[in-house]
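Pasting two entries for a bug report.
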Amino acid sequence: MLAHWGDQRVLGDLAVQRVEDLVLKSNSASVTGQSYDQMLYAQDRWTEYWIGGTVSVISPPPGQGANPPLHENVHLHQYPTPGVRLDQWDYDSLKKIALRWGTYYRLDRMGQLHSQGASDSDQGIAPADALESQAIGDHRGLVFIDTVDGQPPLVDNMGTLVLDTDYFEGLLVVQGHMVFRPRAAGKSVPVLSPSPPETQSLGTRVPVQLSGIHVNGLLYAAGAIKIERSARLYGAMMAGQSVTSIGTGTVIEVWYNADLAQGLFRGLPVVYRAPGTWLAKY
């Protein structure tokens, strides 16, 4: 996984092929949609690594050990103290929101999706048919994919969703495992970079055209995420377990959407406090 424009947070240990795969944080880094493999060396203005344990290098060059010196933006031994701060995506709350405002499916053992209230004889829907966004702006909102038995995720009730769409736009919350296998080149998406560190002004954000984007929004899996074909994502990605790929050349490259840090998740109802009260309004 390669991160642009935001943090990469790992509760446990992080393994990388080379130490050069860790992005150098630099205020002089260009703000473009350029992939790291197109740069002389990977650098970004916003990327920080918060690692609960250690970083190990799988293929260190001759003369370099598996634990070489790291950049200043790589922070080790963060867990349990002071801790790695992660957003909490509560199962019960998200399920209620999806049933009221979003889209709800249950995932079966064969990887098919079943809508709310489907009968036992329902054959299910292929994930690509249910989740494909046809064009930029075809936002699916919150899509909540439940466990096989409709109960909170445990070791024995999590199915595996194969996401093989060309382009998905929305908030995809999977209470199970995920295999990410985009089948085509993705879409070109106009976005805004984060603001410079010293300001939050909208006018300081740089317009960027990101090409080859396969997911515009959020990918969340309560279990593990496996990358079977290289992919590009604008938004954020979270996994309750591991993120792995099938080979050294297969990666997912993520450009963080800075709006998410402000709680602006498109597809979720906006919650605010009614003026003069402590009453929450939707």
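Entry 2 (this is the one that rendered wrong in the viewer):
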Amino acid sequence: MEGSRIPGFYKLPPQQRLEKVKRFASLGEEEVEAIAKHGSLTIEQADRMIENVIGTFELPLGIATNFLIDGKDYLIPMAIEEPSVVAAASNAAKMARPGGGFVTNATPPIMIGQVQLCGVDDPYAARMEILNIKDEIIAKANEQDPILVKLGGGCKGIEVRVVESKQGPMVVTHLLVDCRDAMGANAVNTMAEAVAPLIERATGGKVYLRIISNLATFRLARAKAVFKAEAIGGEAVVEGVLNAYAFAEADPFRCATHNKGIMNGVTAVVLATGNDTRAVEAGAHAYAALRGYKSLTTYEKNRDGDLVATIELPVAVGLVGGATASHPVAKACIKILGVKSAEELARVIAAVGLAQNFAALRALATEGIQRGHMELHARNIAAMAGAKGEEIDAVAEVLVRERKIRVDRAKEVLEEIRRRG
């Protein structure tokens, strides 16, 4: 077996890289074939997107239906491996339609670029010195991306904070950059690096980090839906959802799973459109933690007894640059959505996150989360047990009826079906 130290690995073509990985991991021919197989994303395209490519990795791409957002119908592409997520989102969107569907809004696409200044004895005086050259900093930042400025974006202002740390006080300058239809990381990072010498000259300190923040508190997307009591199962269901929400607000152990359910929908759309799932995930959970980890959604009962649901979270996504502009399936997903701006995409994502959360809470408050999930999961278990074609549904039906969604039981059922057949 070869070691992991492979000089010049990055210089090799993907096929030769895969051959070395095969020897390292003792992969069989079927495993090598599975890795090397690719769909719409060619190996050449993949090799340009990231480093050390040996193949591509596929996930199911589903379509959530029934979404009415701001009076417009959407089909929602979702890339995800978890059963029941797409079905749950579609069902929730259907239940939202009698109340008018989802109503959304968003703030301008402002991202924060952080410039960390250390080594100053008088941090608050240094803060004032930085604010005194605010216009010079903004101008220098905007020199870095004249096209963005021409499109109406660019650095719009700065904030300066004193942050206490184990290394002593740090003076942190925030560049507030309107990224328009880009996610903005490259533009923001370039601007942060460009203004660092100005900050050092004004303060006499030393700049270290110059980097975008994924806690995009100025780039928020919001959605609201009114779920009519009669459309979701009546007053008891409304009360059940309210109790489930109150539990999440009161208990971080529950809230972590509550917000994970939101991100089931959010991340699936972010991934399908070629955007940065890690950035959006980090921003959402950090935003939830600003008040001591809380729900990204709220639930209330209006005077008619209907359930009113809202969501607010940072959604830093773009339509230009990165995989969104280069991955053929991501481009097709953008076309399916029909979105014309990054802001519209963010609003759609917020609506999907709200739908996903409502679906989970309703399930938890009624028949339990496992029923629908296990019905779909049973087919995977049947296939794992060796069922083929029509056998899969036959085995899955027995597993669900018995509430024994296990591979060992699936193998027994499959043997019984084959004996009878």
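Dev reply: Rendering is fixed now. As a check, the viewer should reflect this: The beta strands are 61-69, 72-79, 102-106, 110-118, 154-163, 170-178, 206-213, 220-227, 297-301, 307-314.
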